[in-house]
Amino acid sequence: MAAPAFNSLNALLSGPDARLRQLLSGSRQLIQLRDTVRRHLPSPLAPHCLGAYLEAGTLILFMDSAASATPIRYLQRELLGKFAAAGLACDSLKVQILPYPPVPPSANTPAPALTEKSRQLLESTATHLAEGPLKTSLLRLARNRNPRR
């Protein structure tokens, strides 16, 4: 089995199909479109615009939350006029919510220890419960979150 052929970076940028150059050009166009849209949005909403895409006369805005998308929907007619004056060929506007991905917890962050009072409350509550999964979980929580000495 032959080893795969690797192209040089120069070949990817200037070769006959220049895929990387096309991707780079497309991403620059999307950034430019997003920046143009942000300039014409009301200043409190501009930072919440994560991106924009123009497809068949429809400008699609990607906002980070429903709270920032709702005013855009109400201002749709006014914004379409501003975008047309800026040279964007769009006749309709769609708003989609694209929230930032949640930040994963750090692997090195230990779980917070329970105070002695909280641990006692969990154990007391568990002793008054019938045998079952809730009682088992409360006792395990009290036991596992005990500060190590």
How would you sum up this structure, described in words?
- With 149 residues, this protein is α+β, with helices and mostly antiparallel strands.
- The chain folds into two domains: 25-97, GMP Synthetase, Chain A, domain 3, CATH 3.30.300; 111-149.
- Helix content is 48%, strand content 13%.
- The chain contains six helices and three strands.
- A three-stranded mixed sheet has the order 1-2-3.
- A hairpin with a 2-residue loop joins β1 and β2.
- α5 (116-127) runs antiparallel to α6.
- The longest helix has 22 residues, at 19-40.
- It is elongated and about 70 Å long.
- The chain starts with 8 loop residues before the first helix and ends in a 5-residue tail after the last helix.
- The model has no long low-confidence stretch (mean pLDDT 83).
Layout of helices and strands, plus pairs?
Blueprint: H1 9-14, H2 19-40, E1 49-55, E2 58-63, H3 66-74, H4 76-85, E3 92-97, H5 116-127, H6 133-144
Parallel strand pairs: 2-3
Antiparallel strand pairs: 1-2
Q: How many runs of DSSP E, i.e. beta strands?
A: 3
Shape, principal axes of CA atoms: elongated
- Kindly name the structural category: alpha+beta
**Helix-strand pattern:** HHEEHHEHH
The tally of helices reads 6
Q: Estimate the helix proportion, in percent.
A: 40-55%
